[in-house]
């Protein structure tokens, strides 16, 4: 851990000319992976530990479907290497049920459910919007303003939780550190400079989502980049061929090196900010077991080596 409390960059052997690039997969509990990505005989309890020694980051999907408990987050943190970082998927109760309206209390409950127990291993929070949610500047602006920008602010908001998490809330932090957020859109109405401007105003990343169904925008709106690869020809299922991975490697390299993009789809004005950006990339083409293999191949193309150490016994 650094003196500021921020996670150390993964030991990947990547060039000093670029910021850290973290490539992983979305989720890790998939029965079809057993005996394929996961060695035969590996217990389900050890799957996270194994996956975290293959990749420097993973998306937590369970947080999207329901509130977890503080001890679960503690166990996840303890099962992963020191320089490992989680991305945490925001609650669908906030994004899909409440549709971002009147969500201060649900957000407090979500934050109090144990996220802060990840400590330095808590990376970006991912807010995936439903496909039927249209761009509403006032609604989106209010939601972005509500999102805490550091763990101290998150702890204060978490302390406002209601009885739903009484007796199982975790609202303490060791010290304050920045808290990042990323928004994934799934409706064409977000393809507007007004949305990009709002994200930049609040320092929230626009997720670059590769999918056959929803908009794929590559506007840089924060001090980091967040990319989800859902499958370019078949949602959640299709494999990425080498030529497509090579193109993504170019894009990711440009983000990490602060260079102009070689191509892309944009909704807002070009950014003149050429800072190097930390990049998070998650493969979500999980249904046919392609995600781990594609993630490994992309890491090889970018010359990334994740030196996580041996998996603990037991």
UniProtKB/TrEMBL annotation:
Any Pfam family the entry gives: DUF72
InterPro entries named in the record: DUF72, UPF0759_sf
Domain of life: Bacteria
PANTHER family, sorted: DUF72 DOMAIN-CONTAINING PROTEIN, UNCHARACTERIZED PROTEIN YECE
Protein name from the UniProt record: DUF72 domain-containing protein
Species per Swiss-Prot/TrEMBL record: Ancylobacter polymorphus
């Amino acid at each position: 851990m650094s003196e500021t409390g921020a996670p150390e960059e993964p030991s990947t052997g990547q060039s000093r000319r670029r910021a850290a690039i973290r490539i992983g997969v979305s989720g890790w509990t998939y029965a079809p992976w057993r005996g394929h990505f996961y060695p035969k005989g590996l217990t389900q309890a050890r799957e996270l530990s194994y996956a975290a020694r293959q990749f420097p980051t993973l998306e937590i999907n369970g947080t999207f479907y329901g509130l977890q408990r503080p001890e679960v987050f503690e166990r996840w943190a303890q099962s992963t290497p020191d320089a490992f970082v989680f991305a945490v998927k925001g609650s669908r109760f906030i994004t899909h049920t409440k549709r971002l309206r009147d969500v201060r209390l649900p957000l407090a409950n979500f934050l109090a459910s144990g996220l802060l127990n990840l400590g330095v291993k808590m990376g970006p929070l991912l807010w995936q919007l439903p496909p039927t949610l249209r761009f509403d500047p006032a609604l989106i602006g209010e939601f972005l303003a509500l999102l805490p920008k550091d763990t101290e602010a998150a702890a204060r908001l978490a302390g406002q939780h209601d009885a739903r998490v009484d007796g199982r809330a975790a609202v303490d932090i060791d010290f304050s550190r920045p808290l990042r957020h990323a928004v994934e859109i799934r409706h064409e109405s977000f393809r507007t400079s007004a949305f990009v401007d709002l994200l930049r105003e609040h320092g929230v990343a626009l997720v670059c989502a590769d999918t056959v169904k929803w908009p794929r925008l590559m506007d840089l709106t924060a001090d980091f980049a967040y990319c989800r690869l859902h499958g370019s020809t078949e949602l959640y299922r299709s494999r990425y061929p080498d030529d497509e991975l090579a193109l993504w490697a170019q894009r990711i390299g440009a983000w990490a090196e602060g260079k102009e993009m070689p191509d892309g789809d944009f909704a807002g004005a070009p950014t003149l900010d050429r800072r190097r950006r930390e990049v998070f990339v998650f493969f979500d083409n999980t249904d046919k077991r392609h995600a781990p293999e594609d993630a490994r191949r992309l890491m090889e193309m970018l010359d990334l080596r994740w030196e996580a150490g041996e998996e603990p016994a037991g």
